[in-house]
Amino acid sequence: MCIESSEYPASLESHKIYRVLADKDAAAEGDLRIVDESGEDYLYPAEWVAAIDPPRQLRTSLLRGSARPFSPHNLGIQPTAFGRGLPGGG
Residue 6, SS3? Predict the structure, then answer.
């Protein structure tokens, strides 16, 4: 769930649940690969999101609406490489 969006308010909405894609290289840098409001995945600082563990019924519903293939690891917080791939050339 997004807890900070002030730097990219058009890309992330506070208190909204976003899908996180596994990215070990990005994780090593303290970032997350997040599918944002554009529908594409970009790197954001891991501290901008909080991990949640939704009930099974909600998780199933969220994944059903996802346009990308699902992996159970996509629901976890996987830090990613800060500063690379940020919207707006960050």
Answer: coil
Question: b vs e for 57-81, b when ≥16 Cβ sit within 10 Å of the residue's Cβ?
Answer: eeeeeebeeeeeeeeeebbeebbbb
The model's pTM is 0.66
3-state SS, 15-83, equals CCCCEEECCHHHHHCCEEEEECCCCCEEEEEHHHECCCCCCHHHHHHHHHCCCCCCCHHHHCCCCCCCC
Can you name the residues that pair with 71 across neighbouring β-strands? none
Low-confidence ranges of the chain (pLDDT < 70): 65-90
